[in-house]
Design a protein that fits this description.
Oligomer: single chain
CATH class: Alpha Beta
Shape: globular
CATH topology: Metallo-beta-lactamase, Chain A
Radius of gyration: 18 Å
Strand content: 15-25%
Strand order of the largest sheet: 6-5-4-3-2-1-14
Amino acid sequence: MKITFYGTAAGEGWPGVFCQCELCREARRLGGKNIRTRSQALINDDLLIDLPPDNQLHSLYYGLDLGRVRTLLFTHSHSDHCYPNDLELLREPYSHTYPGRMQVFGNAAVGRAVEAACGSLGGECERFDFHEAQADRAFETGGYTVLPLRASHMKTEDCLLYRIAQGGKAMLYAHDTGAFCDEMLERLAAEPGKLDLVTMDCTSQSHRDDGGHMGLVNASEQREKLLRLGVADEHTIWIVNHFSHNGGWLHEELEAQARRRGFLASYDGMTVEF
């Protein structure tokens, strides 16, 4: 399996769209890995996680081939993760070549957003099926076994993390979220085998965050929980992702700080095979 990170920023992007703070100005000046778009990741070539407003940009700059995506998982309905209007572009006359129907999964709030967006360009979209995903209820799709897990992110909807398994490999996609709840850990522990890769929220980077996101200190604490639980081991690849300009570190410093704690720091366009 492999994961490619196409967007690694929090909701404002980095540099922030309307922001001229010191870190955003420096990111513009330095460019490269300091430029971060809204959150999105691809598993292999056919399972996409989240559909932000930056889909076309990811296609143009990083080679994301949306025409090969067969399954789409939404983590929650925040606009930096859920821009369902682009699902309209699956159909004629916007796409002449997309084969079959995309299988789309998300919580009830995402379902309402998708329903509201569908038909915004006129007509009906006949090229995707929406399925409501619920925490702790695994499903099969496109050769993957997907287990939605409860995130600790917001109180107004059931935000989801995902354990994704295929061919004896398994990974955990864990953001947006704060500290893992006991219910989530118990359900994760019930699954057989170890996690080969874990990617965790690190929105606040240098700052501790005991709310709906995490900093690097929090991510380290959650890693220890997973190790004690026995769902990960010394072979697990650990990655931090989803960064805000409020976190205080540009990429070079973030990468160094993450490495000291045993994490890789993601950047837009990064691919990790496992």
